[in-house]
Amino acid sequence: MMKKSRRGLFRTSAMLLLTLSAPLSVWAQTVKGNEVSVTGAEVQQHLSAEFPQDYDTLGGLLTLTLSDPQLSIPAGGQRLALGVDAKAASGGGNATPIGRLWLSSGLRFDPQQRALLLDQPTLDRIDAASPGQKIDGRTEMLINLWLSDYAKKEPLYQLDTATAALLGDLQVVSTNIENGRVVVRFNRDIGAVPGLE
């Protein structure tokens, strides 16, 4: 009985130490049982700090600049909506506004980055920057190249260091949108110390 109490005390102390060692501002997501959940506002805050971004292709011959991301997570369904302003430049020349890009995407959790990334995103529409403006094939190709690359590499949201440390070797079971939140489920409770259960 005493042995069991010491184990429980060790686990509680470890969790308390992690909590106190991390600034309160980084505890954006909610950890409960085997789940980490994040609100749209928390993802938006992360995104706003990551933009504007420049995307170069063809050795810098084409550059796409993206800014002012706006995220929406629906109460139902499994795809979020993302709007972002875009402009393009070629050969180091002045950038020309393209307009507002509207994307939809699923989500996946990347265990190596401890981050949420886009999953199978699609470009749903482009609101041109000026009336009658046509989007040429080269610009559309550039947008699709960026979107594919962004989905592979760039976190939409990254877990704070303290929460990431609790995950250890947990395996992701699912990543879902539920009631306007992103919920990542793991194969067992987060922060459980192996051998002390």
| Shape category | elongated
Structural class: alpha+beta
Strand order of the largest sheet: 3-4-5-6-7-8
Q: How much helical structure, as a percent, in the residues?
A: 25-40%
Beta-strand percentage? Answer: 35-45%
Low-confidence stretches: 1-27, 193-197
Largest sheet geometry: 6 strands, antiparallel
Radius of gyration: 21 Å
Please tally the β strands and state the result: 10
Labels describing this entry:
197 residues; alpha+beta; six-stranded antiparallel β-sheet; four-stranded antiparallel β-sheet; disordered C terminus
Topology:
Elements (H helix, E strand, L loop, with lengths): L1 H20 L8 E3 L2 E5 H11 L2 E5 L4 E11 L7 E11 L5 E15 L4 E14 L8 H17 L3 E2 L2 H7 L4 E7 L2 E6 L11
Antiparallel strand pairs: 1-2, 2-10, 3-4, 4-5, 5-6, 6-7, 7-8, 9-10
